Amino acid sequence: MAGLAPSLLSADFAELKEEIRKVEEGGADFLHLDVMDGNFVPNITFGPPVIKSLRKVSTLPFDVHLMIDRPERYIGDFVNAGADILTVHAEATIHLNRTIQAIKSEGIKAGVSLNPSTPLNVLDYVLEDLDLVLIMTVNPGFGGQSFIKAMEDKIRTLRKMIDEKNLDVILEIDGGVNLENAKHLKELGVDMIVAGSAVFGAEDITARTQEFKKIIE
Fold this sequence. Notes:
Layout: E1 3-6, H1 16-26, E2 31-36, H2 48-55, E3 62-67, H3 75-81, E4 85-89, H4 96-104, E5 109-114, E6 132-136, H5 151-164, E7 170-174, H6 182-188, E8 192-195, H7 197-200, H8 205-216
Parallel strand pairs: 1-8, 2-3, 3-4, 4-5, 5-6, 6-7, 7-8
Helix pairs in contact: 1-8, 2-3
């Protein structure tokens, strides 16, 4: 069974409390929060103060995706803001193992994200320490992009790596997910699907969340 993590990147920022309520009612499993710094990716979103405010209005696990340079500088800030899972990009930190251990020492789950062109072998010496691996299926920075089909082999390979080592690691993907490809992605071995515009762009967000859940469960 796969889960759904709606991405707030595509939500109406003037109505975040209400938008969160709608996906909660639809059965969302995680809430995916994309933090962008305008440096690692060409966009700027929000930081710990916004996440701290949202923490007061939602009981969903906060799946915080740091698309920022040197994320190790802000681990404590995001933990204090209410992150349940903190995912950093392998490309954004020099000492990946140290950063993972710093996250785990705070008592929350640690994830690593890989850009489309980043090979899986960067996980060779850290996979056993992770709770989640996020495969980017678009180039990060903006919502509403098309799924990069070449990522299907990457997903299959990672699924095999996790299973062969018998690890309890969530395989998550983010980018270009819609109702048409969600079932196929689940069949490839994805555990958690991040969907932004495909959820929050719907006329009825709760119903769309339920549609996704029905397809991937």
